[in-house]
């Protein structure tokens, strides 16, 4: 459940569940609130299910997020973003839940730093089907946002009114090419799905969201939805090209369900 207020503040409610060790069952724990109010991050933990919570409950429960939990330190090796133009640039802010924002927790900051490290590498060996990285925004010595090229929308948006057979083939070929490029660099994305594919002005598919991208063979970062899905479905707990090939198959399945025009 997400909403934006007239002043630009953003609120997101996500129910948190506990999985059994074999990922076969889950039980409700609480609802996590993530918010950006006037650009600053806040969080809250509420015992009710998301559909039982109103805006007043959320506002009363909010507390500020410690910067170190979600923003890694900026370093000289990180490219500085250009002056931001919202028409052509997209600023990616950290995504977090309540448990990520407790003192001493750095899981989100580690994910952000991992994504920046991967994007810095990819920017030195770019590919037309991989997101264009422009640098990072620095605030108080930390990375506040990742600056990326802005695209028109994601694959579900693009496919909403149907696609031709040629358009579908173009998506598959582009995503497959991005996977091969990552593999040539010893990387796997590990979270390929329709929402992580954008479409550019030339109708080319663009692979985005590299916070789970890791060198082949490295242990997946615990706690992300993609890791849970991979462990449930395959038992794999490492970065592997098969994770991406499975994601490509998910894209194929999605496109099979899209009306052909």
From TrEMBL:
Matches recorded under InterPro entries: Atg1-like, Kinase-like_dom_sf, Prot_kinase_dom
Organism classification: Eukaryota, Fungi, Dikarya, Ascomycota, Pezizomycotina
E.C. number: 2.7.11.1
GO cellular component term, pick one: phagophore assembly site membrane
PANTHER family referenced in this protein's UniProt entry, alphabetically: NON-SPECIFIC SERINE_THREONINE PROTEIN KINASE, SERINE/THREONINE-PROTEIN KINASE UNC-51-RELATED
Compartment(s) of residence: Preautophagosomal structure membrane
Ranges for domain Protein kinase: 30-261
Alphabetical UniProt keywords: ATP-binding, Kinase, Nucleotide-binding, Serine/threonine-protein kinase, Transferase
GO biological process, one term: autophagosome assembly
Catalytic reactions of this protein: L-threonyl-[protein] + ATP = O-phospho-L-threonyl-[protein] + ADP + H(+); L-seryl-[protein] + ATP = O-phospho-L-seryl-[protein] + ADP + H(+)
Species in which this protein is naturally found: Neohortaea acidophila
Name recorded for this polypeptide: non-specific serine/threonine protein kinase
């Amino acid at each position: 459940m997400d909403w934006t207020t007239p002043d630009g503040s953003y609120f997101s409610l996500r129910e948190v569940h506990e999985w059994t060790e074999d990922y076969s069952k889950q039980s409700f724990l609480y609802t996590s609130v993530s918010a950006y109010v006037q650009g600053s991050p806040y969080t809250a933990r509420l015992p009710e299910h998301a559909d039982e919570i109103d805006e007043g409950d959320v506002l009363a429960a909010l507390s500020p997020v410690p910067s170190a939990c979600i923003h890694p330190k900026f370093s000289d090796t990180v490219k500085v973003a250009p002056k931001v133009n919202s028409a052509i640039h997209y600023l990616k802010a950290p995504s977090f839940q309540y448990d990520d924002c407790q003192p001493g927790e750095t899981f989100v900051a580690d994910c952000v730093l991992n994504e920046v490290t991967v994007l810095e590498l990819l920017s030195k060996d770019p590919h037309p089907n991989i997101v264009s990285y422009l640098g990072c925004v620095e605030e108080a010595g930390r990375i506040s946002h990742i600056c990326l090229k802005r695209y028109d929308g994601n694959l579900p948006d693009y496919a909403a009114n149907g696609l031709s057979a040629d358009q579908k083939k173009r998506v598959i070929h582009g995503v497959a090419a991005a996977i091969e490029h990552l593999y040539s660099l010893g990387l796997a994305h590990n979270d390929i799905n329709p929402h992580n594919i954008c479409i550019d002005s030339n109708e080319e598919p663009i692979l985005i969201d590299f916070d789970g991208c890791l060198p082949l063979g490295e242990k997946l970062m615990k706690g992300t939805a993609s890791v849970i899905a991979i462990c449930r479905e395959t038992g794999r707990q490492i970065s592997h090209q098969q994770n991406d090939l499975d994601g490509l198959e998910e894209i194929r399945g999605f496109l099979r369900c899209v009306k052909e025009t």
